[in-house]
Task: structure prediction
Amino acid sequence: MRLAAIFAFAPLLLAACVSSPYGPAMPPLPATSVASPVAEVTVPPPQYRRQLVDDPTGASPGTIVVDPANRYLYLVQEDGKALRYGVGVGKAGMEWSGRARVAYKREWPRWTPTRDMIARDPQRYAQWAGGMEGGEGNPLGARALYLFEGGKDTLYRIHGTNEPASIGKAMSSGCIRLMNEDIVDLYNRVPAGASVVVLPMPQAGA
Result:
């Protein structure tokens, strides 16, 4: 089934992480360098590398559509095309779906675990209850897009990762993660206010 059909039925509420107005023209796609004291040497399989594809979503240009089942994020372009990025998604029980907007963006963002994360694993997260400064070791990576709905923070983010091997897998606390070089590319293309749709994971046995 085309994603356009699924897109039409995406839930409306989040489950609780000059040039075109939709971004600059498509640049060359080789890996770009991100200012970081440690270079990323692990790369995901070819299907999860950034590429221009036919748009399977039917969404309006400028919309971000996340397909967690297939581990892809699409930035819809004009003329029936989309930029496709490989992503890591929430592990079982932590995935989410719905609609939101990019309220604001940050470079090398500060990270603070949610109260739920601290309650689930205090040994791991309690030490960062006051927040962790941005940098190479920060779980949000090089950039982050903050998702709000109705003026309220959903607590979910689209962000980079210092664990590139996680791309294509379900192992996050619910947020959508991209390779650092890809989140930098997406960050540069997407303005605050952009629409975001995260499609639901298919039900077991469906």
Summary: The helical segments are 3-7, 115-120, 122-125, 180-189. The chain has a mean pLDDT of 80. Residues 180-189 form the longest helix (10 residues). The radius of gyration is 16 Å.
